[in-house]
């Protein structure tokens, strides 16, 4: 529920409501309006937005819609909640209503909602170069903590790489779960283990050399797209190439998207050799729960 003090933060004639007061199609339409002139629009329909909410544990009762004085939705911010962490996504304000403080009102309401839960911090991601969004979240108290890459690879790109003395096997479901429970990376919300479990349809490969060195890769497989890649510990370029080439030899006709890989990942040079290109860069920003008043 919205906190009363949020009313003081609103511009005249604008009010906020919980997002669960709108249907999925209405929310998707609003989201597309707010992203019409965005650097990377990423349009969605109602069913896709509902899938997004399921995958990322979006709490619609704590998410926010801004309504103008004529009753039209003009802004949106969704809030994911998991144990001690929260995540802001699908944030935006219609271009005709920007510069009026509505975005900050939505951010403040989302933070108020997050602090009513057990969340210790709230994270979000913006596209590098979106200076307006960066300035807004800076003013709200967020701090940038890391930069990441979003990569794409078209279907049918060449992947015929000869790698000798590396044995590739398919991971079984219980092996995938066992490896996810023992991850050593620090994933963003999108690639967190909870997100992968919610998505389902996970596939994985293991690579092992004759010397006993091994690593693995796990990803989500939709009918036409491979996504949500999780990489095992880096061993060497030979194992990395064997794993990734095997993925694309099996799934030759699939589009592939790898999100939020660290800019200094040792896998990036291997990915470039296999036809991946940089789509854009993201910046993760985080704000911690305020200390209680004395």
Description:
The protein is of the alpha+beta class. The chain has two domains: 4-119, 3-Layer(aba) Sandwich (Aminopeptidase); 151-282, Aminopeptidase, CATH 3.40.630. The protein is built from eight helices and twelve strands. A twelve-stranded mixed sheet has the order 1-2-3-4-5-12-6-11-10-9-8-7. Helix 1 crosses helix 2. It is elongated and about 70 Å long. The protein starts with 14 loop residues before the first strand and ends in a 6-residue tail after the last strand.
Output the strand order for the largest sheet: 1-2-3-4-5-12-6-11-10-9-8-7
Proportion in helices: 25-40%
The helix/strand class is: alpha+beta
Order of helices and strands: EHHEEEHEHEEHHEEEHEHE
Biggest beta sheet attributes: 12 strands, mixed
Domains, number = 2
| CATH fold type of the largest domain | Aminopeptidase
Going by CATH, the architecture of the largest domain would be 3-Layer(aba) Sandwich
Indicate the multimeric state.
single chain
Q: Mean pLDDT, as a whole number?
A: 92
| 3D shape | elongated
Beta-strand content estimate: 25-35%
Low-confidence stretches: 1-11
CATH class of the largest domain: Alpha Beta
From the alpha carbons, calculate the radius of gyration and give it in angstroms.
21 Å
Span between N and C termini?
25 Å
